[in-house]
Amino acid sequence: MGERGFSLYATHMSTLGNRPDLFPSSGYVNKYIENPPTAWKIPAAYLTDERFNTLITEAEKYLGYPYVWGGSSPSTSFDCSGFICYVLSNSGLCQTGRLTAQGLYDISTPVAQPQPGDLVFFKGTYATSEISHVGFYVGDGMMLHCGDPIQYSNLNTSYWQSHFYAYGRPPYN
């Protein structure tokens, strides 16, 4: 399947062709239509930082997009690192190319006190010895990441705490 066909398929699956009544037994009805991503409002004080405001403006365009292994653009949807790389590059803040979560960690500077716009890294979210997941830290113990779908998540849950690895700052322009 080519990129265009895959894009159409991803759109169809995430919206069920705008006809969930025709696909009542599909797991996508509950996943994407009846349970949309949890909304989270970024505190206005964080948006005064021009770099973070630019970043989050780009990132929020993709809320609700489904997780697609290997995806790295709106036309294919995203996986976790594809989402981060796409947002960093298309916001004009950091040209990363297409990196894995480990690759993003490798180019980032570790930080102990994360700021909105830093990255948060995890290990053990699937079977690999490397960093396995990455998201944007958005402040107040929250991240925006490509789970399934792209959504905000609380970092203080037992799941994220058990897989937490580090925070890092990408090499912003």
Total count of helical runs of at least 4 residues: 6
Q: Which regions are unreliable across 5 or more consecutive residues at pLDDT < 50?
A: none
What order do the strands of the largest sheet run in, or round the barrel if closed? Answer: 3-8-4-5-6-7
Spatial extent as radius of gyration: 16 Å
Number of strands: 8
Order of helices and strands: HHHEEHHEEEEEHE
What's the helical proportion of residues?
25-40%
Query: Structural class per helix/strand content?
Result: alpha+beta
| Main β-sheet description | 6 strands, antiparallel
Arithmetic mean of pLDDT: 88
Identify the overall geometry.
globular
Portion in strands:
15-25%
Note the quaternary state here: single chain
Instruction: Compute the separation of the termini in Å.
Output: 36 Å
Concise synopsis of the structure shown:
The chain is an alpha+beta fold and 173 residues long.
What this model shows, in words?
It contains 6 helices and 8 strands, in the order αααββααβββββαβ. By secondary structure, the protein is α+β, with helices and mostly antiparallel strands. The relative contact order is 0.16.
